[in-house]
Records
---
Amino acid sequence: MAEDELVSEAPSRVSFDLTTRPWIPVQQLDGTQTELSLHEVFTQADGLRRIVGDLPTQEFALLRLLLALAHDALDGPRDIEHWSDLWADDNCFAPVPAYLAQHRDRFDLLHPVTPFFQVADLRTARDEVFSLNRIVADVPNGEPFFSSRQPAVDRLGFAEAARWIVHTHAYDTSGIKTGVDGDDRAKNGKVYPLGVGWTGTLGGVFAEGSTLRETLLLNLIAADTTGLRFDPDDRPAWRREPSGPGVHGARHPSGVRDLYTWQTRRLRLHFDADGAYGVVLGYGDPLTAHNMHTHEPMTAWRRSPAQEKKRGESLVYLPREHDPARAAWRGLAALIVNRTESTQGSEAAQGLRPGVLEWVARLVTEGELPRGFLIRARVIGPLYGTQQSVIDEIADDRLALAVRLLHQQDRAYAQQAIDAVSDAEGAVTALGDLATDLARASGIESEALRGTARDLGFAALDGPYRTWLHDLAQADDPYEQRKVWQRDAHRLITRLGEQQLAQAGAAAWEGRTIEAKKGSLWLNSALADQWFRSRLNKALSYPYSGRETGSGPALGSDSCAAKEHA
């Protein structure tokens, strides 16, 4: 049977059963890729590396779908003991096949009454059918993004269409949408912007293990977890009444099963025997991001004084979004600082690490995971542009962490890891200052050179920091290991500084008079070099103090005095 061939159950009944038909792209342990059904994903999870997805955001959306399914099929984990039993049981997902068979109709992409994640008979007032561009994120309306289908998506096979439906609920863009028949929010046939899909508001974070089975279990948070809300009636979308057009009453998610399958859109595929050729898409159930930290575990949170003032509330947390230009290790503190450490006196915490990493911290603190156990903190999130109507970029990074860094009794290791990021920031700032000083010495006024130098600095430190962080948990003394990092960073940034000096040219070597805090002075590349080495030594706590390195001036040298005149 061809991949997207329809299964005919009766002359008037066609089906594409997601429980038995391959549609989820996965990577096997040997690196090869294939597509599996929901049934196969769970029965083969221990032999799979990860979900692949057409985009990183699709991988995250599909993972959340699988987690909702696992939570519901296993009815848990109820507590840490239940989770421990699952972790120890190689056949822990054995209940899933029977669960899928029980709810099979709700996983039929083409069901006439309850099509998967769709609304049967959804229509506009004029019975319009729109291009599939509206749900395929790599061809947004306007400029193509990651596009291999320019200029339009004419057709999708049913497997790919199912993936994009899951992705649409999670990450659909905002903007004016055509009103669907029965949606009271429609004005003159349009619904005005109501925000992006729920997952698109997050700086997505999850714990990635060595296999898909480990990944699913590491993110399967027990219902007795402090700080997260799990109502007794928590259910995924396929165990609720099918959604109709518009929104029917405001409600909050009842738990992660509900939240991971939240229906932020209303849509309906139009298809024939060869696949999907069009879609109707409208807004669904809105969800406000503020103070959702007690429901959503797969993002870090930041306190927002501006929103507190605007809303007249004493405490407002918002998701901490990702910057695609900023590597994950540079935001390490948001991932590993616990709530107590981010609290200043009696003040509420300024930030909250992701609930899923709080959960992993609990697993290691209570001895369910060994301290040397290695996870990858995976971060995925979109950057929307033009009033959230398009996706401009996608952040996708992973950071290898020994769970020891999350252990409540091993906070010295976590603190040294965070402080090492500050070391890197300081060193790169010194490199950027050098670029600025060399430009001034040459008679150039440009901040672009500073930005370029900083980018080069962070790029040079990226791989070494990740390696150092990987090895940190095995070190006997985290403070001594921090000094190792400072020396490595000093060497790498010094080398980049020397390259800048060599490329500065004759104008910088000759120099010019500039105005400084304490009058005018003659700035040339030699003085810029002295300032740079002094700043770098200070940023990295003088890592070669007392050593013969030849890499920079010692404490008390003339460069420190020269800096005072700048």
Note: The CA atoms of residues 129 and 279 lie 6 Å apart.
---
Amino acid sequence: MSTIDTTCVNAIRVLSADAIQKANSGHPGLPLGAAPIAYELWANHMKHNAKNPKWADRDRFILSGGHGSMLLYSLLHLFGYGLTLDDVKQFRQDGSLTPGHPEYGHTVGVEATTGPLGAGMSMAVGMAMAEAHLAAVFNKPEYPVVDHYTFVLGGDGCMMEGISSEAFSLAGTLGLSKLIVLYDSNNISIEGGTDIAFTENVQERMQAFGFQTLEVADGNDLEAIGKAIEEAKADTEHPSFITIHTQIGYGCPAKQGKASAHGSPLGDENIVAMKENLGWPSTEPFYVPDEVYAHYEELSKKGAAAEDAWNALFADYAAKYPDMKAKWDAFHSAVDAQALLENEDFWAYADKPQATRNLSGIMINRLKDLVPQLIGGSADLAPSNKTYMDDAGDFSKGNYGGRNFHFGVRELAMGGMTNGLALHGGLRPYAGTFFVFSDYMKPMIRLAALMKLPTTYVLTHDSIGVGEDGPTHEPIEQLAMLRATPNVNVFRPADATETAAGWYLAVTSQETPTALVLTRQNLPQLAGSSKEALKGGYIVADAAKETPDAIIIASGSEVSLAVEAKDMLAKEGVDVRVVSMPCMELFEQQDDVYKAQVLPANVRARVAVEAASDFGWGKYVGLDGATVTMQGFGASAPAELLFEKFGFTAENVANTVKSVLK
């Protein structure tokens, strides 16, 4: 290791330790131990350009161990990504560009929001899938316009989390050779040595998944780290996993190799001792020698030159293949929302009862030609979720150009991989499973919402209508769970028009994930349904008089039930309005005038009908209203019997309205 390389590695350590100490909060152990890995990768093996952090063919780097965020911030500062020394000094402070864990879209150069351990591993697999797919679609002989690697760095905690195993199992099956995992192995977790809970042979586990496995004995040996990275790149058949043995808190005599280095500032005295131990030229906080900045600036020039070469290649490609250039632009542009809104073929439907899961399948196959960047799949449930795109091919080791993804029974990792597909750029992914198993996906849906990714979740078998499979498969609280998640549009359509509206919302969304909650059972097409569903709530069947006696509010399969109840009440002289509420989130975004038109404040007799928990309906029915909802779990029986058993009949809804009016 040259003197300047040593100093540049130590600059990462010193900046990280100083920032954490100033904040009096943070995790110094990972940055100190993994600094040589990050420096060697970013300096000599990773294709990136600080002057254009969104360059399409850059290599991706994800810090899966997001608690070690100062490692990434130090790199972004030193390599010239626009993160200033003042930004570094504001680590973990309100409004700063250096929050406690890396946040995508907030700090330039951060490729993914990480923090929940293992999540970054699954998102990296998704990014590698995206690279493989786009390369298959766009590359031509002598024109590898999509040709980059995905690097992900994580530690023992990431390897313990089950999401990593789910994702790596699929990565090995798919032979994603552009995926390189850097395992910061220091045998320390928060509670002490990893032997208390984690003794497996990780290398053999990764071999079993189908990875090339490599090992570096000394985490400070830049030459050995570099050699392993190049060996990983040379394997074009398998993803690669590099175990690099490090010492947590390296350089701090009192903390090195100890669990106490993980999640607490080192302390002023220990930082001074660390700087002296490392031979750092000053004990002044945040001091970095000019020659270090100069060296990092020289390193950054390689990235700019790499992009210049790619730009020249792409210009030639565009001239030779103008049709592919047009396709590239389509993949990397937003969907034309107005054109889709006015597309009569997209909105057309057969006037017969159909399950909304079937209608969703029809929409997917209409969209596959209208939205060429649409890709997706299911957690081994495509025949049930109706997520398969006809004649679009299966994404596999032998055909990365296929648009149908087979995620296997891996809902949690599927959510993470879907995030990675979206983060990569150029694709609009969807993922499907039974609605009850959105529980398994929730952490990754939350991250998608936090990152403002327009991912789509096709969640079928949405209620006790599942029937004979029983309460383990009948979602009750899941609607409330997803509705409680900020920045998620939960859309439960009642018929074909509303299902089309849900998909329109999904593919035109720019910053919000969409959860499409769909039935197994057939539903009638509603005479009053319309594109007004895009407002989240609207009048689907109005009262005869200007001020209705009562309002029934429902979503999904219960809207037709509400209409039946309205007709029944009309025969008794009770004049009722029915409001379809496919998406509370969209309704809340409407102005007060519209909301008052749909739900006038002077009509306090309101009943909400939904075959799920009543949680969340209170704000619409108020203290004077009532709900026809589930008060417990379901049961195993034919769906028709269950709806009657739990009170989802027109007669019970009508009686509930009358009781409210009394």
Note: The chain has 26 helices and 20 strands.
---
Amino acid sequence: MCGSVLRKRSRYHKHQKLSILCLISLTLFSKVNLEEIKDYYKLLGIPRDATGKEIRKAFKSLALKLHPDKNKESADAEEKFVKVAHAYEILKDPISRKQYDLDGEDWKEKRQNYHSYSYYRDHFGIYDDDPLILTLSKDDYDVNVLDPNQAWFVNFYSPHCHHCHDLAPVWRKLAEELEGIIRVAAVNCEEDYVLCYQLSIEAYPSLLFYEKETHYFDPERYRGSKTLEALKQYALSKVSVDIKSITSENWQEMKMQQLLLLICEKESSDCLETEEIKKIAATLEGLLPVGVITDIEFGKNILNTNETHPIVFWQLEDKKIPKTHIIRGADRKEILDTILNILPHPPTLNEKQFHDLRTKLRLGFDKPWLICFYLGTATDLKLELKRLPTIIPNINIGLIHCGKSSSLCSALHIVRYPTWGVIKSGGAFELHQGRDALHEVAAFARDSAKSTNLHALSPADFHNIKRDSSPWFIDWFAPWCPPCKKLTPELRKASQHFTSDVVQFGTIDCTLHRQLCSEERISSYPSMVLYNGSVIHKFHGTPTESAIVAFIQDAMNPVVLELDDSNFSRLTRKSAKELWIVDFFAPWCRACQLMETEYKNFAKSMKQFSEVIIAKVDCEANGDICSGQHITAYPTIRLYPLGSKGLSTVAIYNGHRTTLALKQWVLSMLPSRVEVLDEQGFRDQILSKKYYLPWLVDFYAPWCGHCVHFEPDFRLVARRLDRKVRSAKIDCEANRVFCGHQRVSAYPTVRLYLSPDNYVNLESKNPTDISNKVKEILQDSKQNEIHDEL
């Protein structure tokens, strides 16, 4: 183990950019003109949706080529290298990258640090160039290792640790051995100090193993030998696969499915090793089950072969007619490659076929299609493409070669390969923005196919939308942005709540359409906006399915009245029979944004009170109104009470900006149908006489949080049941002994008294449930009285 220890530092974000060990560095002071920089992405030679790994790889290649130590004869070598190093510093961090994407970056005289040539050659990103080892960062770590379909073995290292360099060739070989079984990854703790600190990485290299469905902070820390054999045996011991034992008793059932069969006598040296069989079964999981036949004669008979220890692919064709293929190969990869070549391959489509099947889907014919857009050969996609039909049987799968159909790929804005896209019923098209992992592609296909109301939009589409009057909810995003990736599944689910004639959903990729995003003043990712004709509503809530649905429903059928110059006179002419509460706000005000959802929920909760009108005024759009009302701070909440006309009387709210607090405040301004009783009043009104109406009673304590939350709801129940029951409440803190005699042991307790000695406890605290239950009890009581009279 290296003795490198990560120390707790209050300003670790600053130290993250500096080496924690001694290194050779050169400090430069340079002044560079913005025009000379042009585009950071072009400077590094990467696409605008490049991943973190692609950014690091591109920078390393340029660093080795342009480093001043290798270009001492060039007078401007340092200046060129500083530009590249600065571009890397900006783009590697999601926060500064977002700022650059949206606003550009203003170059000023600044200090720029960089390392020696040997650092970039020997220490920078040990595994960045490895195709089988995924370098994880703080932005994508949890998305990957919390994958319930994949186990992960992660190496946390420092590029300055010689033990980490010693482990590197072993780690690469391990990734080859475990390919398709366990995902092998690495984290550079110099680049991602925060992540390593969070996971308590204290020495290098540290190896963590995440089994499927392991929690973020619950990996198993590997403490054994770091030889290839020890690491491999440990990882494979964590793999659980079901290898079928095929006998004459279960063959009739097993032969009705496709199988990979191995005829192998126990303890025979000619058979595949147990470890290899386990690897094959793990790689084929979800595609083909693997079975072993130990009865050689039985195996020869059913497979019609004279070979002693064959490996056979038992294939079922369309009519469940079996066909046997003898599989020859010296190792696992050869065997797997042979099987994959036998399995049917998805069709390759041309541009005309693509448009034809999209037309069919627009007309309601055919199943949705998952299309893989690729260049070169699809060899690397074999396993994924062959597995997909068994995972998503209700979705067609096809290939499009972007070299042969370049105009189509260009029109669909395909900029990286492979890219997956779904054509949905109705003709909508959507591109996958996540990883190429099999389960993610399959999940994308399933979710996208259901979300027929979600479209990927181009600038031309957007301009048509603005000219049209139909409502659209649009997500402006960047595919590399972590919050955008988390939002996409929520957006798909939200789109399923609406039909296209109510509101349609779209996404616009700001890495592809920068000019449009700039014109629309998109200032953050993701930005969600509802365009409803000339009215624009910006979403500021929590980016979840329920919040998006509620936001759209509120915008389409607002529960809060929006006041402006055209209708503010409604408030100025307010009658004495109305109570108005008005929120004066500014859309840029953070406190206003935080209160927005609470205010809408408050408005919904008051819908039963027809005399209450809840409104809001946008003071940025209606400055004259707000200045005329002397509004000097946001949000300002004013109440115009019952009994007053127009603006003659006003109360200003200074309490908590929550649904409950607002509701309590407004209800306190309304006449209540709930009578307040003490012990004597309770005895006089309820326990000592036969009354003409039943009593509904709330037993409460002022210190009880549930009672405080329930009080507005009880007032609402009293209002709904007026003239059916009389409603009362009693403070059981002030009348503790009496409540005890009434056998009240929990607060709040709601009780319906039909007579002094006949009552029913109501368990639910939902206003609608209470109202319905009381009506049901009263009806039953009435029927019983009629029956008794008869």
Note: The longest strand covers residues 579-585.
